[in-house]
Write a structure and sequence with these properties.
Helices cover about 20% and strands about 30% of the residues. It is an alpha+beta fold and about 425 residues long.
């Protein structure tokens, strides 16, 4: 008889695959990038994907001299071995006499991988989303959450697919408002039950337990060191290493600063005096300071920040070039768990399928795979040994998220020293 899953394993696996499909809200609400796995491997699992094109306009009948050079701006996404998410467990033939041990272990393994996928996406947005705001109180009313939609509208990041993820205690506060007796209807009482809350404005809204805290920053005096620290967008050329101001990725740039007292830390939210957000298309100054993120290099005088400062041209996102000596203000003054918001096209989830089929029926390996509607493949491998009486089980997924447009996602922080 051919190697196969037992009936207990098969039923548990099928039930768990259905749960995995339904539970992966973060993955379902992100754009999936899944090229041919062989092509991705030949590319070293690092690929450039197009950034949304932007154009400039002019007025008048004669447009001579007003041509816009089309720049194929791209941004990088990558997938590494450390992005393979595994659960590995073993049961001997005595332990597996109890069906529950087998089925519960399989279900717990897939549940853990599902949690890892959701957390990785949430962490990417919390670490790299650039539309950020904070309140001096808890986030308890619709007006608090309206700021997320306001920021997206100000920068003209219009989308039909917008999502809001609330940490459990924030959701509890909002549930109290929704579930009051005077709003005694089944729609509002959903707030006490399911993972999805009633929509807030244009956002589909969810409870999410996978949101990490944003740490507190006590920086006191950091300033911009040097003028003309903005980016000129150019097309990617693999044979050229770009140097400032040329930049082939609008997600980030190096910003040189002076640390007089304290320094910026990775994950910080900060603004630069005199540098505001502008609309993506109209280029109208919103009057609101651009919020930047520190991606890497925290503690140094050359942190990598997001987004890149682009003060002119079709990809302009800032109202001005930072002045030398401009004051940098860190806003995350109190450690807090954020409410996260995204648009579907702000996060790209790079997925690939490992060649597990090469192991099928090899050395008593039994393999089954399941691919979600969003494109994530989860593999289930089983291998037993007649000598030891031990059966090894492995569950595996390979994917990694990237914030590809930091001005289309971000978070709201409660309980900050100063609102921003």
């Amino acid at each position: 008889m051919a190697n196969s899953l037992t009936s207990v394993e098969q039923i548990a696996w099928e039930e768990t695959c259905e749960e995995f499909e339904n539970a992966n809200v973060f993955a379902e609400n992100a754009d999936i990038y899944k090229p041919d796995s062989g092509y991705a491997e030949l590319a070293g699992q690092t690929i450039r994907i197009p950034f949304a094109n932007q154009m400039q306009s002019s007025t008048g009948l004669d447009v001579t001299g007003n041509e816009t050079d089309v720049i194929d701006v791209t941004t990088q996404i990558s997938l590494g071995g450390s992005d393979i998410k595994d659960v590995y467990f073993k049961l001997n033939v005595q332990e597996s006499l109890v069906d529950r041990r087998v089925s519960d272990s399989i279900k717990a393994g897939v549940r853990k991988i599902s949690s890892d996928v959701s957390k990785q996406i949430a962490d990417a947005v919390i670490d790299g989303g650039a539309l950020c705001a904070g309140e001096t109180t808890g986030l308890t009313t619709y007006s608090h959450f309206a700021k997320a939609d306001t920021m997206l509208e100000e920068v003209e990041a219009y989308s039909m697919d917008k999502f809001l993820y609330l940490p459990p205690r924030t959701a509890m506060g909002l549930s109290n408002e929704l579930g009051m007796r005077q709003t005694d209807n089944s729609r509002d009482h959903r707030a006490y039950g399911y993972g999805e809350l009633p929509s807030i404005g244009d956002f589909r809204t969810y409870k999410a337990g996978s949101l990490k805290q944003v740490a507190a920053e006590a920086v006191t005096t950091v300033t911009v060191n040097g003028a003309n620290q903005d980016s000129d967008m150019v097309a990617y050329n693999s044979n050229v290493t770009q140097t400032a101001p040329n930049n082939d990725d609008p997600k980030s740039q190096v910003l040189t600063v002076t640390n007089t007292s304290g320094s910026l830390t990775n994950g910080d939210v900060f603004s630069i005096a005199g540098v505001n957000r502008v609309g993506i298309d109209t280029k109208i100054d919103t009057g609101q300071l651009m919020t930047f993120r520190v991606l890497s290099g925290g503690g140094t005088t050359t942190p990598v920040v997001s987004p890149a400062i682009i003060s002119s041209g079709p990809y302009q996102n800032c109202s001005a070039v930072p002045a030398s000596g401009a004051v940098i203000t860190a806003h995350n003054t109190v450690a807090a768990t954020p409410t996260v918001f995204t648009t579907k096209d702000s996060v790209r989830l790079f997925c690939s399928d490992l060649n597990w089929a090469a192991l099928n029926d090899s050395s008593s390996v039994v393999l089954d795979t399941f691919t979600t509607t969003s494109g994530i493949q989860i593999a289930f491998l089983k291998q037993g040994s007649a000598l030891t009486g031990i059966v090894d089980y492995r569950l595996s997924v390979w994917c990694a998220p990237t914030v590809v447009d930091p001005l289309k996602c971000g978070f709201l922080l409660p309980d900050q020293t100063t609102a921003f």
